[in-house]
Every structure is written in C-alpha cells, then in structure tokens.
Amino acid sequence: MAQAKINAKANEGRFCRSSSMADRSSRLLESLDQLELRVEALREAATAVEQEKEILLEMIHSIQNSQDMRQISDGEREELNLTANRLMGRTLTVEVSVETIRNPQQQESLKHATRIIDEVVNKFLDDLGNAKSHLMSLYSACSSEVPPGPVDQKFQSIVIGCALEDQKKIKRRLETLLRNIENSDKAIKLLEHSKGAGSKTLQQNAESKFN
Question: SMART domains from the entry (predicted)?
Fold first, then answer.
C-alpha cells in the first residue's frame, strides 16, 4: 500500500513536470510567433524606405533634366542645381539594405534576369525605340494583369524562378526605366517643338524684312 502511494506521487511529479514543460514550450512558441510578425513588419518598413529613396533620387534627377530647367537663366539654373545636388547628397546618406534569402537556383535566375535588362539598357543610345519596345515586353512578363502588348515568354520563365522579393524589385526597375524613357521622349519632343517654333519665328522675321 505504501509503495503504491510512493509510485502515485512519483507519477504525479512526472505529470506536473511534463505539463509545466509543455506550457513553457507553448509560451516560447507564442513569443517567437509574435517576433516573426515584428520581423516581417521591420523588413516591409525597410523595403518601403528603400523604395522611397529610389523615388526621391529619380524625382531629383528628373527635375535637373527637365525642360523647365533649360528655359531659365544660367544663374537660376546654377542655384537650383546646387539645391538639387544638396538634396541628392542628403538622400544618398540614407543607407538601407534588405537582404533577400535565395537558394542557388533563385540566385542564378536573378543574375540571368539582371543581365537581360542590362543588355537592353546598353542599347538605349543605339536604338531607343526598339529598346523601349523590348522593355515593355519584359515589363509585361512581370505583370499579373493582362498585358497590353507582347510578352517575353523566356524572360517570364526566368523571373518566375526568382525569389518573390526579387520579382518585385525587377518589376520596379523596369517601371523606373520606362518612366525615364517616357520623360526623355517628352523632353526631346519639347526641344524639337521649341526649335521648330524658333525657326518659324526667324523665317517670319526674315520675310517681314524683305516685304
């Protein structure tokens, strides 16, 4: 009888220890789950800062190369460029890096996709129109919506092999390149228009002198 009581107490002790360990493990797991949410929120916030930095640099660069900057006095342009350079310098002091975890296949896919985009960029000066069309087909390959034009199927399969974060970055880079081309087209058209208007004015002035 006494032995049975001793065994019962021993079993009770083991049960209490087992229950306590389970509770402790559950609490630890819950804490880690909460920390995981905070880690993901941190990565999202850092990525947002990265994107904001890219946007600010693009906007400053766009202002410096805008048609309006060409149509003001040299003194005003110099002063505005000094301000723009100061803002760009301050923006570049912000260093944010969000590393993407990749397996070897994803790493190779990213290198391949980057190489394709770089090759198109290098052809900008030779044939801007064709480069723009090529970029559009690459961008369509990254879009989840029905694309308005042709899709580069080979590039699409490469991008699918990239990590999800890299897919977003590739799409963002293509969007930036297309915006830059669009702004360049507008600047060229405005410049040609102003040249055409200037030539027409000169011609009218010359004709009025002879009349």
Answer: BAG (SM00264)
pLDDT tens across 148-164, in order? Answer: 778 899 999 999 999 99
Please list, residue by residue across 112-137, b when 16 or more beta carbons sit within 10 angstroms of its beta carbon and e when fewer do.
ebbebbeebeeebeeeeeebbebbbb
Spatial contact of 170 and 113, defined as CB atoms under 8 Å apart: yes
Dihedral (Cα; 189, 185, 86, 73), 10-degree rounding: -10
Q: Quote the CA–CA distance of 157 and 148 in Å, as a whole number.
A: 19
- Nearest residue to 102 (alpha-carbon basis) of 23, 12, 162: 162
pLDDT of residue 210: 41
Tokens 């390959």, residue? 141
Residue of 66, 63, 52 lying closest to 85 (CA atoms): 63
Q: How many CB atoms lie within 10 A of CB 155?
A: 22
* Tens-digit pLDDT profile for residues 68-118: 888 889 899 999 999 999 999 999 999 988 888 899 999 999 999 999 999
Count Cβ atoms below 10 Å from residue 48 Cβ, excluding itself: 12
Tell me the fold of 101-194. Answer: Methane Monooxygenase Hydroxylase; Chain G, domain 1 (1.20.58)
Domain extents in the chain? 27-99, 101-194
